[in-house]
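Q: Here's a chain of 307 amino acids. Please give me its 3D structure as tokens.
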Amino acid sequence: MALRETAWRTFAGELNAAMQEEHGTGERAATYLLSPYGARVNRVLMAGILSTPEPIGKDPAQPFWRARLADPTGTVSVTAGAFQPRAMAQLRSVPAPRTAMVVGKVHLYRGGDATAYISVRAEGIRTIEETALRGIYADALAQSLDRLDLVEKLAREPDLPDDRLGTHGAPAAWVRAARESVRRYPSVDRAAYRAALKNVLEVVEGKRPVLAAAAPPPGTLRVTPAEPPPSAPRPAPSAEERAHESAFLDVLDELVDGSSDGYADLKELVQRLAEHGLSAEAAEEMLDRLQEDGVVEEPIVGRLRRA
């Protein structure tokens, strides 16, 4: 059984700067978002000012909600839908902008015009008091600065062996992420992000009010990263994975053929896949993988078709 990925403590500014991905290896491999500042994240724990949520799904039977989480470094979208019923209920219960903590998976979507959208697919949301918010900021700030130190050290001395870095208390996951950050983002101005973290420090020290320190919603973000190095090929799928993928696509095609608009309903697809022994969680992971591979697309929330 695969272990759940660690939820990295980070800020919106780091996620918004992360334009590179890496695919894990093995069965049901995770996808990681690589930042210029030393993070290699699949899941995150964040805190900030959570806006009033809004429904963005067009199908009442397939609800999908979105809010924005703002901290002193930026703003990131937080979403929850039918695959996350508990998180969706928690998100919908936020009555007004409140200080909140969010745990979830990061997601990077690239539009056809090279526009990038970063979001966090919530697994859990909880409103918190400002004292707790400052505590989360302090923890994330300490980790962010330590990771920045590690990245900048490797940028200056790229040939340093891992064992020497480990003697400074850096976890192996941080060392790996730092090396990838240096390699994937060779010309990023990391000093600018370090300066942005000073705003967080002022909030932690009580020199700036929490609400006043929240960043405004960002404009559209364009993807302009350096060309990534070739990624390692994914391992060949197992017989079980091939069988599940075949069942997924067969059911998808059946639903598309029987629909009036040329789309398969996501909720119905998941229900049908359960008859083939595929859980809702496994169906979501397979959908993510098939979307990343360009096999399946979801141009309308909750409505799928082959790409």
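Q: Can you summarize the key feature?
A: The first strand starts at residue 7 and ends at 9.
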